[in-house]
Amino acid sequence: MDIDHWASEFDNYLLKNWVNHDNAHDIFHLRRVWRTAQTLMGASEQVNPLVVLVACYFHDVVTLPKDHPQRSQASSLSATETLRILTTHFPSLPKHYHDPIAHCIIAHSFSANVEPISLEAKIVQDADRLEALGAIGLARVFAVSGQLNRTLFDGDDPFAQNRALDDSRWALDHFQEKLLKLPETMQTPMGKLLATQNANYLVQFMAKLSAELSGNIAQFDDDIIARFSLDVN
């Protein structure tokens, strides 16, 4: 069975059986992570694409809200559930892939803080984290913040120049607390490059927002760009 056929099988299974209420981690997120992982894999012969594929499609099969007390355990729960699904519904998938797949799923999570050891796990982690950056990341951060009833930003000090950051209150604070730091956590050279480029997209948004809040509707705030832009080289 070729990789495209496996992808179709997993996609169909999730569409029919997966009950999910998290719009930031839906089937479209899983498909995008797989597409990004394919970009990161390139033509490498050192990577097992089937391990990466399974991990991409099932890494969020168990999702918990960001404010859930067991949030850091979600990836381990997903790994356990994935192995159950593979054993029950995809018995033809070689069982010696199960442990490598489980490691990829457990290690993908930011909150779990598990170091990815295999190249497959590094690729899956990078592909998933790239979803938090760029245009998709911008949409997701405000969607999630809306679900959690968080305010968009602190109107008196939106960029936390004179206060401590607190992304549990203000969505915009999440950019500085986590998102702009993601490029330095990337595991692959291509992942780091893409993350840096897409983090700078968020900086452009911040610069536009800052200008608009100052009444400069058609401008960008150069000070914000200078303060937060990341070096692509």
TrEMBL record:
- Classify the source by domain of life: Bacteria
Q: Domain named HD/PDEase: which ranges?
A: 22-142
InterPro entries (UniProt xref): HD/PDEase_dom, HD_domain
Q: Which Pfam families match?
A: HD
Protein name per its UniProtKB record: Phosphohydrolase
Q: Which source organism?
A: Providencia stuartii
Starting at the broadest rank, the lineage of the source organism is: Bacteria, Pseudomonadati, Pseudomonadota, Gammaproteobacteria, Enterobacterales
